[in-house]
Structures are given as structure tokens and as C-alpha cells.
Design a protein that fits this description.
The protein is mainly α and about 130 residues long. It is built from five helices and three strands, in the order ααβααββα. The chain has a three-stranded antiparallel sheet. Strand 2 and strand 3 form a beta hairpin.
């Protein structure tokens, strides 16, 4: 005789083995990944990561885009606190605001680790750009 056994309850999509992200962190991560989904903004971050600091004119030359277009992308990245400006005379120089970006990514990877047993660290990652 076969006796039916109830299947164990399935965890809902929200109830995973990963801890719940705070609403603020979740909002910040969604914003960052939306920004990084744009090729121009991703290239801006790669150029700034590689070269340290660039002004708008240098970014326009590298991206082959107009100053208003590049300035628009820079404003979005600045508002998300991914880059920071430094004024030098008439020019603004931009650099990656590493502390904020690293904090967001660290929080994401920390939430993805197996209860902290195997944390992924931002320092373990290397960003490269293929030609």
C-alpha cells in the first residue's frame, strides 16, 4: 500500500536563502544597475576607473559624443553618487566615487553569500574592457 505524503512547502520567490535587502539598498541597487545598463554610462565609468579623472571634453573625445549628451550622462551618474566632480577653473573633472560604489556592491555580495560563510569581496573583482 502506498501512503501519499504531502510535499514540503515551497518557499515563495521572496523567501529565499538570502537575507532580505533593506528597501533603501534595494532601491539604490536598482538605480545603479539601470544606470550601468546604458553603454555610454558604463563606458564613462570604465574610462574614469582606468584613467582616474577626466574632464567633459576628454570624455566627449573618447565617446565620440556631444558635450550636452555626455553632460547628461554625467549628471545621472553624479546624482546616483557613482562619480564626483572636482572644479578646476572653468573645467569640471570627474572621478569614480569608489566608496559609495564599493559599499553598494559589497552589500549586494554580502547578501548573496551563504550566510556569510563564503563572502564575495569587491577587492576580489577585476574590471576589464575588451577591445
Amino acid at each position: 500500500m502506498i501512503t501519499p505524503v504531502a510535499a514540503p512547502p515551497r518557499a515563495s520567490h521572496r523567501e529565499s536563502r538570502f537575507p532580505e535587502l533593506s528597501r533603501r539598498l534595494e532601491k539604490d541597487l536598482v538605480q545603479v544597475f539601470k544606470l550601468l545598463a546604458d553603454e555610454t554610462r558604463l563606458k564613462i565609468l570604465l574610462y574614469l576607473t582606468r584613467e582616474g579623472e577626466l574632464n567633459v571634453t576628454a570624455l566627449c573625445d573618447r565617446l565620440h559624443q556631444s558635450q550636452p549628451a555626455v553632460s547628461h550622462h554625467l549628471a545621472l551618474l553624479r546624482d546616483a553618487r557613482l562619480i564626483e566632480p572636482r572644479r578646476d577653473g572653468k573645467h569640471n573633472f570627474y572621478s569614480v566615487q569608489k566608496s559609495h560604489f564599493h559599499h553598494l556592491i559589497h552589500q549586494l555580495f554580502e547578501s548573496m553569500s551563504d550566510n556569510g560563510d563564503h563572502p564575495v569581496r569587491i577587492d576580489d573583482l577585476v574590471i576589464t574592457q575588451e577591445s
